[in-house]
Amino acid sequence: MKLRPLTDRFSTALILLASALLMSVSGGLGRMDHVLYDLGQKLHVRPAPSDLVIVAIDEDSLAKLGRWPWSRRLHAALIDRLKKDGARVIGLDLIFAEPDTADQPADAALSDAIKQAGNVVLPVLLESSRVNGQLLETLPLPQFVEHVAGLGRVHVELDEDGIARSVFLWEGVGTPAWPHFSQAVLQAAASLPSQLSATPPRLDDAKPFALVREDLRRISFLGPPGHVQSLSYAQVLTGEFPAGLFKNKIVLVGATAAGMGDLLPTPVSGLRQPMPGVEFHANVLDSMRSNRLISTAPQWSVLLVGALLALAPMLWLPRLSPLLGLLASGLWFVVVAAVAMVLPLATAVWLPPSAALFAILIAYPVWSWRRLEFAGRFLDHELKRMRHELQQAGSNAANDRERQSSDPFQLRIMQVQAASARLRHLQAERSETLAFISHDIRAPLAAAMMQLNEQGDASGRLRAPLARALSLAENFLSTSRAEMADSARFQEVELVAVLHQAADDAYAAACEKSVRLQRDLPDDPVWMQGDFGLLHRAVLNLLLNAVKYAPPDSVVELQLAQTGHQAVVSVSDRGAGISAEQQSRLFQRFSRVEADASAPGGTGLGLYFVRTVAEKHGGSVAVASLAEGGTCFSLRLPMMPD
Questions:
Q1: Domain range spanning residue 551?
Q2: Residues 107 and 223 in one domain
Q3: In whole angstroms, what separates CA 144 from the centre of its chain?
Q4: Distance CA 107, CA 72 (A)
Q5: Are residue 273 and residue 345 in the same domain, yes or no?
């Protein structure tokens, strides 16, 4: 049974570790990871950059400029207006893959505007002509591509729960040839951080007709939809804005009206209020420029950290009570979840915590199950033994009641009830035995001693055995009372008075052996919670033992000192001393040490009584041999606060 706690710890730790690793490798709790990531993004809102502006094709623009599609002359005029106002770069999130058949000169006008501006970035669209068909890269018309400052794809991949959280920095059909649209805008604005490459990665093997992606990053969003500064397309086209508003700013032009363009559910918007694609690109652009793109930690580090976090509850569950263990595990769950939400915002690294959180969540139930299994086996073993003893004692009624229930838990309760009844019966028998010793044996022995004293029995042949029998009965009675003492009934006791009373009672025995009792007691009272009679008898036993083993014409010292909140009662003699081997069993029941051959024999209960009284009062007793010879017994007792 001693190895069971260690076995339970090991088995619980193994279950938690296996659960964390299994969940981490399988990804079965990926949605929980997404929820924590999204919650962290919602709680962290940053101010939108002042040099980033969205020109939105909104409902007001459609109402003023007519139904979509518009003439490309309008886009050319918009580019001219933005360039004239000093825009640093213009990102047109609009697809110009086919000629304008209704107004062919409009394409030339737009091409000329792009050329004159010299800072226009156009999108590349990755699309399929049919369901499960071959992916195609749709580029703008060649006459536009000839004059653009950059090209970038606008493809956004949704996670398994339909939320847009991340982008690939490079993507393409066959090879990852195209940067993200926001990355191309930053490169045209000469604001691309050095950590992001301006050239596509090289792969050893090409994959024709397949979508190839490299460098997946999560986005650190600025805030909910509408957080980035935005102006209406019609308002800008007609010049209804302060002069210099777009000076040296990055301008993204795209659709925000319902039914136009991409509306993406994001961690900061959800499904009810999707974010327009152009604002999504604005968030990606800000994350890139401020080095806030979030990388996912390597798998090995996720497994290692998850295992450590999952095993952490084993540091406190074996040491705390069930309630405190439950509270500590719940607090640890909250702390790990909170750190997981804050970590990507502080370090730009995402470490999925769901596997560790799952293990933390089941840590308390698993540990409780293992401990209950151990407790159940232990109780079954002990109750089986107790039932056997009850059967030997003739208590078969309990067994008959047990057979009436098929519930194992109810059977255990019945067995405990039977054992409790038997214990109460034994307690009653013990009380009867004490009463028998106290009256039916102790009283006749005392009467016989009085008659011998009155008749003057000179031989002493009867007095010695009768005195020994009476002393044994009294010691046994006192020890039993000490063992049954209830500390809840203790009262305030003045310890100095107890010591004086004990010294006075030992005075006659000391005089008979020509031993001098020396008292070193304080004048001020020392108060404690205790039983006056038990404390008096314990100190008296120490004094009588010291007198018994002390040589004639020597000194026995009684001292009281205070150490912190403890009172230390010391009884010292100048006898022969006690060996270390004898000291180890000195306070056991019926253990006697004959340090001096001439010393009279005892019952072996005196020092056991002293130890029992000390423990009942929350203290202890110790023995030490003095350097100058003799023995010192120290009784430590807790004092009352001032």
A1: 486-638
A2: yes
A3: 60
A4: 6
A5: no
Maximum CA extent, the chain? 149
Is 489 a residue whose pLDDT tops 70?
A: yes
- Quote the CA–CA distance of 179 and 151 in Å, as a whole number: 8
* 3-state helix, strand and coil shares in percent for the chain, rounded to the nearest 5: 50, 15, 35
Q: Which two tokens stand for residue 246?
A: 């777009």
Burial 317-337 (b: 16+ CB within 10 A, else e): beeeeeeebeebbeebbeebb
> How much is the pTM?
0.64
Total number of domains constituting the chain: 4
Which of 142, 90, 141, 85 has its CA nearest to residue 119?
90
Q: Considering the domain boundaries, does residue 365 fall inside one?
A: no
Query: Does residue 243 sit in helix, strand or coil?
Result: coil
Q: Please report, to the nearest 10 degrees, the dihedral formed by the alpha carbons of residues 442, 446, 448, 454 taken in order.
A: 180
**Cβ atoms 279, 119 nearer than 8 A:** no
328 plus 286 within the same structural domain = no
Same structural domain for residues 127 and 249?
A: yes
Looking at the fold, whether 284 and 302 belong to one and the same domain comes out as no
Q: Decide which of 196 and 205 is more confident.
A: 196
The per-residue pLDDT for range 561-588, each reduced to its tens digit, is 988 888 999 999 888 777 766 766 677 6
Give per-residue pLDDT as tens, 264-321: 889 988 667 888 999 999 999 999 999 999 998 898 998 999 899 999 999 998 888 8
Six-digit token pair at 96? 């110009």
Question: 437, exposed or middle or buried, with CB in 10 Å at 0-12, 13-18, 19+?
Answer: middle
Identify the pLDDT of residue 400. Answer: 46
Provide the Cα torsion 334, 335, 338, 341; round to 10°: -120
User: In this structure, is residue 382 part of a structural domain?
Assistant: no
Q: Rounded to an integer, what distance in angstroms lies between the CA atom of residue 360 and that of residue 213?
A: 35
Token digits of residue 635? 């009784």
429-459 residue pLDDT tens: 666 666 566 555 656 666 666 766 666 654 4
Asked if residue 147 and residue 29 are part of one domain, the reply reads no
Of 273, 293, 313, the position where a domain reaches its end is 293
Residue 188 sits at φ, ψ, to 5 deg, of -65, -30
Structure tokens at 634: 């120290």
Q: What is the pLDDT of residue 28?
A: 82
Q: Are 358 and 306 in contact (CB under 8 A)?
A: no
Provide the token pair at 340: 């997981």
Q: Is residue 375 part of a domain?
A: no
Residue 116 to residue 577: CA distance in whole angstroms? 112
Tokens of 241: 């804005």
- Domain check: are 179 and 262 in the same one? yes
**What distance in Å separates the CA atoms of residue 496 and residue 517, rounded to the nearest whole number?**
16
Which of 460, 484, 508 finishes a domain? 484
What phi and psi, each to the nearest 5 degrees, are found at residue 373?
Answer: -60, -45
The residues that bridge with 240 in the sheet, in sequence order, are none
Rounded Cα gap, residues 449 and 292, in angstroms: 99
Rounded Cα–Cα distance for residues 106 and 241 (Å): 26
CA distances 514 to 219, 232, 405, 549, Å, are: 96, 116, 72, 12
CA angle 463, 468, 472 (to 5 degrees): 150
Closest by CA to 306, choosing from 340, 346, 338, 344, is 340
- 629 and 557 within one domain: yes
3-state secondary structure of 408: helix
